[in-house]
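User: Sequence in, structure out. Go.
Assistant: Echoing your sequence, followed by the structure tokens.
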Amino acid sequence: MKVSDGGTVLAADVFSSRCPSRSVLDHVTSKWAVLVLAALAVEPLRFSALRRRIDGVSEKMLAQTLRTLEADGFVDRVVTPTTPPQVTYSLTDLGRGLTGHLTGLLGFIQTRLPEIEAARST
């Protein structure tokens, strides 16, 4: 975050430790957040479907990740008043914009995994 002498924020600077973009970067680059966003890019999902889709995530971590992504404006949470209530998660416009970048990263990792694993073994 670059600040003028008057204290006005001019632009985000992810290289500055004082910039709020650092916490957003931390939120969206966590393993679970990337997987949640990628799963929701395909379709809106309920909590249990998300948990089944993301193998290995605990209920606690999934709930925490969803709360964080919702607070940052990337995920929308809709509660349908049934018994029991049904909660569906989907991407917001902001989330769709971000997820386009993250799915490229996931695609790169999946495509180049043999090379990555070969490099690890040397």
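User: And one key feature?
Assistant: The CA atoms of residues 5 and 11 lie 14 Å apart.
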